[in-house]
Specification:
The structure is a single chain. The chain is an alpha+beta fold and about 325 residues long. It folds into two domains: about 20-245, Metal-dependent hydrolases (TIM Barrel, Alpha-Beta Barrel), CATH 3.20.20.140; about 255-320 and about 330-335. It contains eight helices and 18 strands. It has helices at about 40-50, 70-85, 120-130, 150-160, 175-185, 200, 220-230, 245-255, and strands spanning about 20-25, 55, 85-100, 100-110, 135, 165-170, 170-175, 185-190, 210-215, 235-240, 240-245, 255-265, 270-275, 280-285, 295-300, 300-310, 315-325, 330-335. The chain has a 15-stranded mixed beta sheet that branches. A hairpin with a 2-residue loop joins strand 6 (about 165-170) and strand 7 (about 170-175). The longest helix has 13 residues, at about 70-85. The chain starts with 20 loop residues before the first strand and ends with a strand.
Length: about 325
């Protein structure tokens, strides 16, 4: 009967943890202002429909003064973002060769992206920092034979010009970058790096969502978001993969998965019921010996029933195969306590 189509938004169910609000964010995307295929308004609409809280349009910066207006993506998307209650962070992608050179990096919370239009990468990074930017190294494994930490990254890091690393980009996970973040106290970042329409890059009939950064923020404001990023309070969430500092990873698992029932039955068995209140599917594999299930998958927003003989019950250690606390180490949890 009505003339107005209803807008639909998918909600991403991630519990808040440790007293923080968990913001769903994508800090790497492109529009027609560089090599993207859609407008800034489309980027905002896509983010809203997918249930994101914050985004940054980070078009490639032309490192030649006056080449184009680098603030255009932000300026064109700001009104729509305000209407949709999406935090739109002004940013840009610093685009230089890698080795020699620093490669690509995103600078967020900029005041004037045009001032980064220099052909000297040191000058560009310094200007970004002068504007109070949060800077992270993009896709360290892209277009290289092997992932390495270069002299240029050491120089940026030692001069306070590198705050984080994109450990997941588009379709790629970089375990080595996870370890760099842990060793150097850099912030974990995960993004889509989308150039085309988001549903052309990702088939949402197969995957639940784009890669994103989960930010533990005191509130949903730009100031609080920046504080959280600089403090390193993030997790990555991509293709059902979670990675980050163990403190945050464990808190997210504990807030998601609960043993809600341990019920002795007259048959000499005990019924255990585990619930998962998040959208994340947790894939668990038993580490010790016993007659309890070897593999347990607790799907998002679901429960799992496990019936055990009473004599077989004992606390059992499982590795959570899709949850990483370092590049090659998984979270371990204990079930059937």
């Amino acid at each position: 009967m009505g003339d107005y189509p209803l807008e639909k938004r998918r909600m991403i169910n991630i519990p808040d943890i440790l007293g923080y609000t968990v913001l769903k964010c994508d800090f790497h995307m492109h529009t027609l202002n560089s090599d993207g295929e859609v407008t800034a308004a489309t980027r905002v609409q896509e983010a809203w429909e997918e249930g994101l809280d914050a985004i940054s349009i980070t078009d490639h910066i032309a490192h030649k003064k006056g080449a184009k207006d680098e603030n255009q993506g932000y300026d064109l998307g700001r009104k729509d973002a305000t209407e949709k209650d999406i935090l739109l962070i002004k940013g840009g992608e610093i685009t230089f060769p890698l080795n020699p050179g620093p490669g690509h990096a995103n600078a967020l919370f900029l005041q004037d992206v045009n001032k980064l239009q220099t052909d000297d990468w040191r000058e560009t990074f310094s200007e970004a920092k002068k504007q109070g930017a949060f800077i992270f190294w993009n896709h360290p494994g892209w277009a290289v034979d092997s992932i390495r930490w270069y002299e240029e990254q050491s120089e940026l890091y030692n001069n306070g010009l590198l705050n984080g690393i994109e450990v997941f980009n588009e379709f790629e996970f970089y375990p080595e970058a996870v370890n760099w973040c842990l060793a150097k106290n850099l912030t974990f970042i995960s993004n889509s790096d989308v150039h085309s329409a988001i549903d052309r890059l990702y088939d949402f009939n197969i995957v639940k969502h784009r890669p994103m950064t989960l930010v533990l923020s005191s509130e949903k404001t730009e100031k609080a978001l920046k504080e959280a990023l600089l403090a390193g309070r993030t997790l990555i969430y991509a293709y059902n993969l979670i990675a980050g500092k163990e403190e945050y990873v464990k808190a997210l698992y504990d807030a998601s998965v609960k043993q809600v029932t341990k019920k002795p039955l007259d048959s000499g068995k005990t019924l255990f019921i585990f619930s998962n209140e998040s959208d994340i599917d947790y894939i668990l594999k038993r580490q010790d010996i016993g007659k309890i299930p070897e593999d347990i998958v607790i799907f998002g927003r679901s429960t799992v029933n496990v019936m055990l003989e009473n004599e077989d019950i004992k606390p059992s250690v499982y590795v959570v195969e899709n949850v990483f606390i370092s590049g090659y180490d998984n979270l371990h949890v204990t079930l059937f306590q």
